[in-house]
Write a structure and sequence with these properties.
alpha+beta; 218 residues; 8 helices; five-stranded mixed sheet; globular; two-stranded antiparallel ribbon
């Protein structure tokens, strides 16, 4: 049986650059087809990036030895990628929710200062969307997400917001933390304490594997 937490099974593998995840070339075409089929089934309309180049700054690109939260040397800011035809597989595989047509026009990343995606099994299990923003835009991002409007029926249960390269550079909005179906807030330390309660409830024979899987996919 395939390990659903092995990273590779979801299109990723560990890179040699600071242990970041990178796109697995062995499953790239398969995942691309799955994504294209999903968009076709949903009737989604792909948008053009235009003047938005935020994905050239926020995520790491191991193939280019680029850290997250720094501009790629190949980016013409506000214009696009200068090596687009030869861009790394990570860049080819990347698609934010706005580009895929999964969110409203008003959430264009360079206009709101963040982009939304789904790159973590843990987030998915909690009904969360992953959001990438910058530390100085964190307050504005939280305010905007608390009033999030989905183009579909209902809204996501929450958001996992990343604002730096460390795992600790995270915070969380979720309806379970709020009242009257409003998004409540937790910082990294608060979330850790909640996770400890959940882990304590898991039978000991499964606990170690669960913790390892969570660390691998968070």
């Amino acid at each position: 049986m395939k390990n659903i937490f092995d990273g590779k099974s979801h299109g990723y593998k560990r890179s040699n650059f600071k242990n970041y995840f990178e796109t697995d070339p062995e499953t790239f075409e398969e995942k691309k087809k799955e994504n294209d089929d999903f968009k076709k089934k949903m009737g989604l309309k792909t948008r053009l990036c235009g003047d938005c180049t935020l994905c050239c700054k926020l995520p790491p690109v191991p193939a280019l030895k680029k850290e997250g939260y720094e501009w790629c040397k190949h980016c013409d800011i506000g214009e696009g990628c200068k090596i687009y035809k030869d861009r790394p597989l990570d860049c080819q595989a990347f698609e934010c929710f706005w580009h895929a047509g999964l969110t409203l026009e008003e959430y264009k990343p360079n206009k709101v200062g963040f982009y939304m995606t789904m790159d973590s099994m843990n987030d998915g299990a909690m009904g969360m969307i992953k959001v990438y923003t910058e530390r100085h835009r964190l307050g504005a991002t939280i305010r905007k997400l608390k009033k999030y409007k989905s183009p579909f029926n209902g809204n996501p249960k929450g958001f996992h917001i990343k604002f730096g390269n460390r795992k600790e550079d995270s915070c969380f909005l979720h309806v379970d933390y709020g009242e009257n179906s409003e998004y409540g807030f937790m910082d990294w330390d608060q979330m850790g304490k909640e996770a400890e309660k959940e882990i304590a409830s898991i039978p000991k024979q499964f606990r170690e594997k669960f913790i390892a899987a969570a660390k691998e996919t968070w």
